[in-house]
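Dear Dr. V.,

Thank you for agreeing to look over these. As mentioned in my earlier message, I'm a first-year student in the group and I'm still getting used to reading structure tokens, so any feedback on how I've presented them would be very welcome. I ran two proteins. I've put each sequence directly above its structure. The first is here:
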Amino acid sequence: MTSYHKWRGSHVFTKSVWLLLLSCCALPQIGYANERPKVCLALSGGGARGAAHIGILKRLEELKIPVDCIAGTSMGSIVGGLYASGKTADEIEKALGAMDWEYIFNDDPARQDLPLRRKQEERLYLIDARPGVTDKGELKFPTGAIQGQKFSLVLRELTLPVSTITDFDKLPIPFRAIATDIGDGSEVIIAKGDLATAMRASMAVPGAFAAVQQDNHLLVDGGLTNNLPVDVVRSMGADIVIAVDISSPYMPADQVTDMFAITAQMTSIMTRTNAERQIASLHQQDILIVPALGDIGSGDFDKTNDAVKIGYKSAVQVNKKLEALSLSESAYNNMLMSRNHPEKSEPVINFIRIKNNANADDQIIAKRINQAIGKPLDREVLEQDIGAVYGLGLFQSVSYDVIEEDGKKGLEVDAKAKSWGPNYMQFGVELSSSVQKDDSYNLALSYQRTDINSLGGELRGGVQFGNEPKIGAEWFQPFDMQGLYFWQTGASYGSYDVGIYDDEGNHLAIYQVTEAKLDAALGREFPRYGDLRIGYRYRTGDGELSTGTPGWDSFNYDTAQLYTRFSVDRLDNLNFHTSGWFSLVEYAKADPSWGSDSQFDQAMASAAIYKTVYGGHVLGLAGTAMTTIDGTAPIQDLYRFGGFLNLSGYTENSLSGQQAGVISGIYYHQFKIIPLLSWYLGTTIEYGGVWESKNDFGSNPELAGSVFLGANTPLGPVYLGYGYGESNNNTIFFYLGRPLFY
């Protein structure tokens, strides 16, 4: 013990002399020796501004300056964690430069990969936001607007070579991530666990990103408590701290003009205040670098290349101080070789484990993971499978990790149930208007209960108020763990108007139809494409004359049909498609033996394809054909055209017949006239009509079309346009939402 203390005292004395010399002047290169000071990085948070850290790392590598430990906050933890995992500055720059940040910050999986049920839910005019609801009727919300599903997968992929290292001191460079416990406001220094999760927690900006649960802590962005962790690297044994402050400066008072600016300024005040305390603690031998990032904001991820260059330039400006820390080439290479070098080859997966706290059976997840046992990890397939599990809509996050047990590596898939589920509320609004005073509105409230059993069954109920009041409920129940076979049944009761028009499109009468409906079907899903179903549909109701010339008879009806339907949906976006295709074919037969008061057969086919060409110009081709094959369909079962995209010059549903068909050419282009919404300017050409006889189908079709301005809004799609048709049928129309509830 005595000899140890003597050596320790000698070591401290030697290091102190070295630091004294360093503080006095810039020294020539110093060879690698045990007595050299420990150089560590403290990297601050600042969102996209954090790309400047990469430029500084590039300069440190050029100068052959050793980095012995790193602590990072928020974006500083991302760059610092990747560097600590063994990646070079160039590799980090390449990885960040290749990221599609808009895609990463959108949790939704690619629409084409969703189950058809989720795609069909989008066709309801309900608003996308789905707060949870407690048993007491209180609303519950996610802990952040972005759950970070894709962002976490990116971090997982980048840190996969060190995924089995749970002690951050054993990384190629010892590392700490700084987070904040939102429960008590304390600083949390993450030194153990999963590196990707630690980085993700450190960058969980409150309100924007969902908080991360780790042990007994609910963690958010570390910038709230320690945005420039100088003291943390000091506690790791740093003799010299290179502190990089890229936090956003205060805005002048005249720029703090709205609630968004005030929120940003409040964040800056919190982060700058604790960063200034850390800067004040720097010693004479420490080096502070503050890149002149100017107007690059924390959200300007499209300017990361600029930030890298500015970071590099800022390091060059303190070259004299940095050069004193340089090692000789041989000493630097020896230092690099002495580090722990993680394997870069894909690990061989010997087992798969599922972690799942939802009610759904583990096999629902396992059946969708196609990783082969005894084969190297196939990340491309795995991430597609993870997207399929997440697309079920049951989970807040679905992540994976490579773990090691008994010397064998395996895959662990961790699915966390939504903290605000499984009971959800949705609201909806649908408005339409035209110059012909053909106005309507509907408001909706829907309740959904997911995960009702181990197979992932769901219940949905809702009520609609407005021109078409309605109440309805449905039950969707898969039969197997893969969800390939299912049963769906629903019932609704409501009323709607049916207009009667003459051949010139003039309004003759309006019937108010009150109807009860029952629908039950068995189906087979084809994952990521569509489904085939066979079902029974029963409708009973009556029609009372609402407006029109007296003498129109009231009526009642019972329509019972057996039907089969095959549908495929590969569109990339429901409202404004840029690629993909859609098709639907249905055959329905009404017969008295099934409870119908009339006998008729009907068939319909619809298809559409869209493609983006030449810099964002979208072209589409769509067609629909509907025919009464046998018998005569009663008034409530006639096919109806008229309205936007269905012979746009005519008012909504003003054409009706036993046969109907239309083919449409569609063009639109996206542009932004205000920053918050994506707008589309487009036009359509439509050719079709309605007919009574099969023999007349396609004869004397009408030419119609439209020009329109559309946008995606938080309430749903909005369209404003002008529709034109033959025989002087012209209209100006407005739509908000999708006119479909149940």
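The second protein is here, in the same arrangement:
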Amino acid sequence: MRVDGADDHARTPARGALSTSAVARFDELDEDDVGDVDFQHDDDEDARGDGARDGDGARDGVVGRYRKMRARFDSFSGALSDARGAFDAFAFTGWSEEQKKIVVKLAFLATFAVIFYATTAVIFAHVWIGMAKAIGVRVLWGVGVSIGLAMAPPVFPNAAAHALALVLMAAEVALLSVNAILLGLVHLAIVLNKHVLPSWFHRAKVALRESAGGVDHRGRANAHFVEHRQETLSELERAKDYREWIAVANKLDAFPADVGEGGSRWKADEKSDVYDRQLVKVYLNTMRTARERDDLTALGLCLRTVLHRNFAGIDRLLHLRFSRVGTKKLVQDFNDEIVAVIKHIAETADDEQAMEMLQVLKESYRSLGRTALCLSGGGALAMYHFGVLRTLLQEGLCPQVISGTSGGSIVAAFLSCHSPEDILQAIRPDVSTRYGRRWFPRPLKMALHFLKHGVLMDAEGFSKTTKAYFGDTTFEEALAISGRAVSIQVSIGSQTGYVLNHLTSPNVLIRTAVCASCALPGLMRPVEILAKDKHGNLVPFHPPDVKSYDGTITQDIPSARMTELFNCNNFIVSQVNPHLNFVLHLAEESHGRRQKTARSYQRRNAVQKLLRVANFLLLNIKYSIQKLLEVDLLDIRFVRTLQGVLMQDFRGHITILPSLRWADYSRISSNPTEKDMDRYISRGEQSTWPHVESIRYTMKIETTLVDSIRALSKRVDATGEKIKRTNSHGFLEH
């Protein structure tokens, strides 16, 4: 049988050279296989012998017998073909055995896999079925208990709801704790990154590089710049006024980015992902061309488009302050061109178009909106606001709309009771002791008063102090004196905010509004707000049972109400609340706020990323607190009060934050001395200087619009048209 198979294979086309694996398969054949092919093996041996002899003869024929070579060669070819066929048969037989082994192995593995996975599936199914039964039973029990409690007397569902509330609150508190721990670790990394790279680091880096040979010129230059930068920073801290400060700040902007500055280079580079520079360029060129052609219609159309706060993302660019003074040159040129266009429209010689252009400017002013200055609470730390006000008044940047809450209401009321000519001279270190009255009693007296009455201060004594400073001036009278719309935030009833000003309460006494806004629970009892009737007599503004207290509890920064009343959409916030200072400093630094320590550009970016992670964790913490307070599962009044205090937005578009020291926290409820006031005013000014150019940028267009509207109004006044004029006190109404 195998011989026939061998012959068949011998007649098939050649499969190629004999492989060594075929010989190995031959060695593995058992005795029966050898017996079956024994006779074939003998024939093969004979064929090999004849082939060998024929090969010898062929080699001899090459030497002398050429004629016999042909026959010998044919015989050799036949023997070779027979041998090839035989070994092909062995190779085929060996491959078949290997194939059998592979099939057996595959079958075994497949069987094992089926058994393994089937067993695993059975085990998991058993486990899941057991879990499902256990959970299902408990769910059914829970549903049954819930239905039973719902049908039971009210006390049982109430108890179940409280238990569920406690479980949910415990879970949220655990999540809040995790975020707080992560925030602590991130803050530790921030502190280490902020203080581990003084100038010695750059010198050590240069020495390490030069130890391998050569001179590190760039490293030496950076080390020199770092030392020079530290000296310049010291000059910046010693600056006595804004002019000296801005000169030193421009020097710092000229330093390279590798040492933590690079502001000048950043301003010259137009590129940024924050704003649409192509759109800015298009409108910049369009306005320039239209102004050169004196095309008032085209200029009016451009103004209607570009006059809003965040056109092309410019407002976001101002928040990312990578320079100490100013912003990108392209953006500054764009702002200057808008100002030039507004002045060009106001100075047009065509009286026929003056009325139309006046309407365009008024509508543009309405579209742009107003800027408001908001002064936060903070106890005695609110005296920092005097330094902020002094800087803004000196630079001509104090807005017409101002709000004050709690301690900030004292400063806002002080501003409203002084004319623009007198206010700068009135802001002096003796402002807290000028009339021989104390804002805060002595600590011992406060402690005794608390033990006797449950509050630290007597409202009557505080009222006498406010009367010494503000008299019986009403909001309407204050507007006529100062020309500024001053608002004071108070709280009434059960945490209802109320804004007092010349529109909502024109006849209310400012001093009583200040008393109410400062009446923090635990510090003073709620007070009654007084107003003047038509005969000048003092009468209660609210019904007898309605008392007013601290405005910070409801809204420290009443931005929404200011928008409704005065169309304000740009807020400058002076924030001195002690419990917010650290958090807001962290948020400001994450958006590019400058540091005093010298860090490389890469390290500064790394620190900013860490700060953004910290800000993200702070948002998580705030959201967790908001959920705990807003849901108010336990229906506790104190929780609702805490919600009103913590869940507000205490920042503005520009937030001025003084760097509080540990000693400041101990002076929150202390009456400021002249020495304290000198420090408060000085540090308030220093905290404002880094923001002056940003404020100037945001208010430049606004003030130009107001001046141009007033100038055009005078020109068209003779035409007899009915126009909206400014009030006698100079406040321009929308």
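From my reading of the second output: The radius of gyration is 45 Å. The chain has 29 helices and nine strands. Does that match how you would interpret it?

Kind regards,
E.
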